[in-house]
Design a protein that fits this description.
CATH class: Alpha Beta
CATH superfamily: Aldolase class I
Order of helices and strands: EHEHEHEHEHHHEHEHEHHHH
Pfam family, one: DHDPS
GO cellular component, one term: cytoplasm
Bound molecules: the ligand CC(=O)N[C@@H]([C@@H](O)[C@H](O)[C@H](O)CO)[C@@H](O)CC(=O)C(=O)O
Strand order of the largest sheet: 1-2-3-4-5-6-7-8
Number of domains: 1
Shape: globular
Helix content: 40-55%
CATH topology: TIM Barrel
Largest sheet: 8 strands, parallel, barrel
Family: Belongs to the DapA family. NanA subfamily.
EC number: 4.1.3.3
Distance between the termini: 45 Å
GO molecular function, one term: N-acetylneuraminate lyase activity
Strand content: 5-15%
Number of helices: 13
Amino acid sequence: MASSKKKLQGLVAATITPMTENGEINFSVIGRYVDYLVEEQGVKNIFVNGTTGEGLSLSISERCQVAKEWVTKGRNKLDQVVIHVGALSLKESQELAKHAAEIGADGIAVIAPFFLKPWNKDVLINFLKEVAAAAPTLPFYYYHIPALTGVKIRAEELLDGIQDKIPTFQGLKFSDTDLLDFGQCVDQNRQQQFAFLFGVDEQLLSALVMGATGAVGSTYNYLGKKTNQMLEAFEQKDFSSALNYQFCIQRFINFVVKLGFGVSQTKAIMTLVSGIPMGPPRLPLQKASREFTDNAEAKLKSLDFLPFTGLEDRNLEACS
Ligand SMILES: CC(=O)N[C@@H]([C@@H](O)[C@H](O)[C@H](O)CO)[C@@H](O)CC(=O)C(=O)O
């Protein structure tokens, strides 16, 4: 059985994997990165080797080393470290799950295999069950991200009776905009104490209304503080302030989405905001352009997400 750890809730940063200019993993900045998340962003949970972390572009050995480094540097600083162990090969996924347990991670998450795909719920459950069984002491999360995996099995369907098949099942990371599916996951599992972690940062407030217990996302690396203010306002039932915070976050995300936004751009923004070099992404991704970085920087300043340096930057649309 999974250990009776505290439920995963609040913000979870989907960590970036820092790299050097020649494409190797830059382990040397991970300690600083942990401190930045905790001290500057108020984020104490992380999700390692996921989409943002380019987990599927790393070798198995690299994934193990990255996971170990985060667990080691996060000890006594972070609340929970969840490792994404999804892979196309069941054997590799099991190896990663086992490794996560050995290094003392707090949970594992798995996406649906996306090349030879499970064609129905039972097949997907069978795959997840075999991975979960490789780490029987760790809480298990299903990572639903249909736009990237192409596996469109509804999460609501998957969750029906899941704990009978996967006793360590502890929650769902839902990276999709289908709030009907998300709402039904919450509604139909009220007794289960699952963690319902939403993964579309620009829509988090809607998901909170729908019953999300937390959120995993890329923007919590650098907008964690602002998003925590939204969570607090929501908690206090100050919905007008919560909406202001969400709109403010949306203004930034909307701006970068129009320029073209993904993992490469997340790396560039995090470098700008934190001052910690995240480096380029690994192929097939391309480094964010200079033009993107300049535009993102100006927008961050105008919203007061970055201190402004000159009068020309003076913020006109800052969110309080
Ligand atoms: C497709 C994608 O990368 N989605 C992000 C979001 O945080 C996303 O960057 C954000 O909502 C902005 O669109 C996360 O759901 C991904 C994530 O949690 C991960 O890195 O595993």
